[in-house]
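Dock magnesium ion; give full complex structure.
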Amino acid sequence: MTLSSTDQVPKFAVIGRVNEGKSSVVSTLTENDRIAVGPDPGTTEISERFDVRGDGYDLFSLIDTPGFEEPERVLAWLKQRGETAAERRAAIHDFVKTFSGTEEFAAECQLLKPIIDGAAVIYVVSSKHPFRPGFEAEMEILRWTGAPRLALINKSDGADYSFDWKSALSQYFNIVKEFDALRGGFVDRMQLLEALRIMNDDSAVALDRAIQILSRIQLRRLHRSVDVIARLLGDMLTFRMKLSEAEAASPNKNAVIDRFHDCLRTIETNARSEIEQLFNFSRIERNEHEFTKPIYEKDLFAEETWQFLGQPRWVLITLGTLAGGALGGAVDIKTAGFSGFLATPIGMLLGAVSAATATAGEPEAKIKGTNLAGRVVAIGPHKDPNFSWVILDRALLHFRALLARTHAVRAAMQVVGKEKIGLVHGLESANLLALGKIMGKIKKSESPEKYHDFAVTVLKPVIWELARKFSALPKS
Ligand SMILES: Nc1nc2c(ncn2[C@@H]2O[C@H](COP(=O)(O)OP(=O)(O)OP(=O)(O)O)[C@@H](O)[C@H]2O)c(=O)[nH]1
Ligand SMILES: [Mg+2]
């Protein structure tokens, strides 16, 4: 369903010098990770329009363009033809008409054509390069177009010349804004749309609607992500694998366990892909090299995963006891702290139990088997008490990495920060207890569906908190 004609859909040409991050801005704002972005100047050679659609509406379009190559020569040509204000726009038209299809000024023709066709301008500069008067020629050319113009300082790491840029840009552009194409979250993107809306009255209604629809879609994605993670927990915690006839007849324990683990890995990988697709990521690379894999990307059953993720043993036992109602939830395991907690009689008791029962244990040693007439016919579910926490932790880490990523990033996904630590033990005690309880119930249940809605209710505040931290939560 398209309610508006194409003419009413706001169009923005993203313009600037080569390699300033124009295509990165287009990728991030259009949530398109297939646009060519690269370190070599001149990656984009022809202008290309990318449409943003949502809930059946055309919302806005961005046009990715090649960088200015010879702005001084172009300006000199224009100056010979446009002496008065009235003549300047006509001179731009003449320029494109004269040089289109020729070898001269190919990049400039490509980038000016969309403006002639009615696009407003987003002029991109990188904060890491200092402002030089050489840039004034291209800014002047853009002023001659008479189109509404917003300047975007693409913030990057390292040197930051934003301050110098601002004073120069404000002389040529209606609005100057900072934006980080590699990190800008949903909220930052909406703020940019709001700035574009202010810049150009003609597109105000359309952009208001775009912000409204995109916010609705974002909320829906967050809800669906909670749903996928809740389903992942249910599926993994109750997963049982039937042995084939051949496996049951001559059991090879290791081979069967390997297949069991492969099935669990597949469930996890599918859930991750489902969430990535919800957020329009189509080709996130997974780094296969063991040493550079982020923790959540390390194999689910790698020893390191089990060391850093999930819960320490003492927390597992405490949580088990609390969830079982023995302490009535009266002890706050977070504020009690490990050492202080151990000094209490309950803590000493639990410490002793922990020391007596905790085994470093291979995760695969804890799989339940089902016997029938003396033959193992199925195995599962996974019995390790930390299993549920490890898969939850991995799901949260993956989700966090996704929220921290924009569609302009082409590198393999990494956990934010290099801390070798999961997320579950940073959760609020109330959330921890509720999660422990629900995961315990799911594990014991034959049908995880029974607890799905409950799991969704418990997971939602955790996912919402992450979304808020990463500017991914729309304004209500
Ligand atoms: N550190 C950092 N790098 C960035 C940022 N934005 C873009 N880059 C990198 O800068 C390089 C150029 O980015 P592009 O988006 O292709 O730049 P462009 O202006 O479209 O370049 P051309 O098409 O060649 O004119 C790529 O390697 C990007 O990953 C940023 O905000 N921070
Ligand atoms: Mg480009």
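Observed: The chain has a mean pLDDT of 82.
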